[in-house]
Amino acid sequence: MSLYTDYLTEIETRKGEGLNPKPIDDGALVAELIEQIKDTGNEHRDASLNFFIYNTLPGTTSAAGVKAKFLKDIILGGATVAEISGEFAFELLSHMKGGPSVEVLLDLALGDDAAIAAQAAEVLKTQVFLYEADTDRLDAAYKAGNAVAKELLESYAKAEFFTKLPEVEEEIKVVTYIAGVGDISTDLLSPGAEAHSRADRELHGKCMITPEAQAEIQDLQKQHPDARVMLIAEKGTMGVGSSRMSGVNNVALWTGKKASPYVPFINIAPVVAGTNGISPIFLTTVGVTGGIGIDLDNWVKKLDADGNVVEDEDGEAVLEEAYSVATGTVLTINSKTKTLHDASGKELKSVAAAFTPQKMEFMKAGGSYAVVFGKKLQTFAAAALGQELKSAYAPSKEITAEGQGLTAVEKIFNRNALGVTPGATLLAGSDVRVQVNVVGSQDTTGPMTAQELEAMAATVISPSVDVGYQSGCHTASVWDKKAQANIPKLMQFMNDFGLITARDPKGKYHAMTDVIHKVLNDITVDDWDVIIGGDSHTRMSKGVAFGADSGTVALALATGEASMPVPESVKVTFKGQMAEHLDFRDVVHATQAQMLDQHGDNVFQGRVIEVHIGTLLADQAFTFTDWTAEMKAKASICISNDDTLIGSLELAKSRIQVMIDKGMDNEAQLLAGLIAKADKRIADIKSGANPALTPDDNAKYFAEVVVDLDAIDEPMIADPDVNNEDVSKRYTHDTIRPVSYYGGDKKVNLGFVGSCMVHKGDMKIVAQMLKNLEKSMGKVEFNAPLVVAAPTYNIIDELKEEGDWEILEKYSGFEFDDLFPKAEARTEYENIMYLERPGCNLCMGNQEKAAKGDTVLATSTRLFQGRVVGDLPEKKGESLLASTPVVVLSAILGRTPTMEEYKAAVEGIDLTKFAPPLAVPSTTNSAHF
């Protein structure tokens, strides 16, 4: 058996699934293809030639390395292939996006054959993915007097790789397709249950929406061959929830343009839209592919004759249609006037926000990567030639105002900004390249991040990044064949790339399946840091963190920077006092409800929530920041007291030290460097040299929200409201209800305490409740299953030291065993408590779910349709979200509790409290005070 015959076997298997041959990334297989191509009588020659030309992945894959060397051999005359001329070989190299292909092109351009050097130079002038080794080589050749090197540098200094590209077409014709009514989660576009297939783009593409929807899109394309299909969230926001490059990849696969004729199943430039625009993370991902994201505003609030908003019987604003975007509607986008028009030419609205100079550059260049690398390459070339840089790109938008104070996020961006006008103080709306300090990759998007890194020819983490972390949390629940095939390969790649990895490819330390954002929260050791993570819940309680797609994560890992506008901020402060029987999670839910009461619309959407939560340590404050992803915020920032921040940093140091003690640090000693950085930050706070980050008193906010703690008297529940007559109001996080709404009789089929929304204190609350309920009830019996998943092993270790884990073990009917992890997903649950492996568990929905049609009460964040629980024909699944004590009590009762039952159950329990005026001593490792 050879690799080629194995490949043929795989091809036959894929045929049965309606799939084409899988793109090749293995250099050894490409070497076999080459041998068969050279043998003109080989029965597999034609197929091998086809695979070599059209089905080999570019970038830094081992396949690309072997392909590039053979093309070089053809160009130099060392090999002859009738179907691949020297000219065609250069064309193939031009589509291979850096790495081995650039190395080969430089070999040829700087070689002795003048004719070949000239051809190679012409191809190199179109390339942007050059790294330090490439530019150093070019610089050295120029200094040695090489004329071709000079010619290349002069071309790069003019950015001809960008300026000679075709301009964005003035008129873009689109035909609409309503993908759903209401908010569209990325789970619809790239379901979590299919996470294992994301690196196989063709296979994963089959899970987008439904097969019926895919057929309808294809029909529209046949009917309107001159138009691009625009995917729409009618009466909602497109792309809420997880930060999924795979979602945009799927949309592009079905509706976008082919990136290269020689690279299969990679499409770019999708057009997406929503009545309420595009989720911030999703919009960034659209930019990665050079796509277009439009805020339609096609449904508006109805006004009466006096200009007042008309409300329905529930007090909700009545909406009326400003213009139709029903499936099959033909519209035209004018990129010059930045306007949207109907088929008759009537202007419907401005779409200027979708066609900023920067976004148009992404469209022209085929995505944001090419722009980022292009800017760096032009800057290098100008410096190498000793010329003044005359940027070919639109100048960064710099907004300033004399005397205006700065919000917290404006301060962080100004501290970390790159390439801005010296001395300029930038305000919200400015476009900024910003230094990234911490980068996180998670395990279901990680394979795509690895692909993106290979595609952009990156081989090592940027030295300017303090630390990169690769998690194993999204595949923690079940160590099945899919995980066993994908995860070790991912961990090896990321470990080699320079990240701290949850699994040791060498097997020396225990596999850590800790939730990515909880780890990032621990390893962020400066409140001035910028963090990028491959998950929408990358929201830290220190610094400012942005959930990102796998491509943006790859770019941050490779370059140490990200590009984005400085976001606007909404200031959240608190007044009053928390009732003793409430948990801080109730405050989090109430913040959303009170914000909507105060402002009518969701002012958090697309903005940074600056929460003045000074007395809450990082673990507990994370509950608020984590939730801001569901509030549709772009990010969040915690404003902490000095002593509180010191306490959080000391806790972070202790947990980083545990990681070091377990052997997780790498040769570069990134983790040790974090402890040193934390020590310096603590010293600066104590000395007064740099106190905890605070905004200026005269900072300008988009809006302010004051949360009245006195107004919260009951536990609050976020309800997906699955039976709301208005489909657009289902599965949003805007329906917040008190527990009494359910009358103590809503059946609960399963409870879930876990995911990133719980901290050590939540696990202690579970233990305390079980002890107390046993005292009052005589015996604790579960009337519904209770799944408990701690977010990190550190927390479990601390619980074991303090005696709480022993209590949880006493009441559990199942406890995870890392020596024998589950190899199959659980399909049925008994009425017992399950102590599951640290990780995302049910919240992720990709490995285990509740039974279809169940009503789940959970501490997690996901109430989207089909995520935690699927539907039955006769009953929709419900994922209601509440505090830990409400979930535990509901699982024991098998229903939602009454207020009387709830108050009795939590009496004397040490719930997570929040008292704005109080300060936490720096020596405290728990915010239960």
UniProtKB/TrEMBL annotation:
List residues of the Aconitase B HEAT-like domain: 6-162
Where would I find the Aconitase/3-isopropylmalate dehydratase large subunit alpha/beta/alpha domain in this sequence?
432-894
Which molecular-function annotations from GO does this UniProt entry contain?
A: 2-methylisocitrate dehydratase activity; 4 iron, 4 sulfur cluster binding; aconitate hydratase activity; metal ion binding
**Gene Ontology CC entries for this record:** cytosol
Q: Which UniProt keywords apply?
A: Iron, Iron-sulfur, Lyase, Metal-binding
Domain Aconitase B swivel intervals: 181-406
Q: Name one GO biological process term.
A: propionate catabolic process, 2-methylcitrate cycle
Q: Give a single Pfam family match.
A: Aconitase
Signal peptide bounds: none
Record has tRNA-binding as a keyword: no
The protein's matches in SUPFAM superfamilies, at most eight in alphabetical order, are given as: Aconitase B, N-terminal domain (SSF74778), Aconitase iron-sulfur domain (SSF53732), LeuD/IlvD-like (SSF52016)
EC number(s) stated in the UniProt entry for this protein: 4.2.1.3, 4.2.1.99
The record ties this protein, via PANTHER family, to: ACONITATE HYDRATASE B
Protein name (Swiss-Prot/TrEMBL)? Bifunctional aconitate hydratase 2/2-methylisocitrate dehydratase
Q: Which organism does this record belong to?
A: Aliiroseovarius halocynthiae
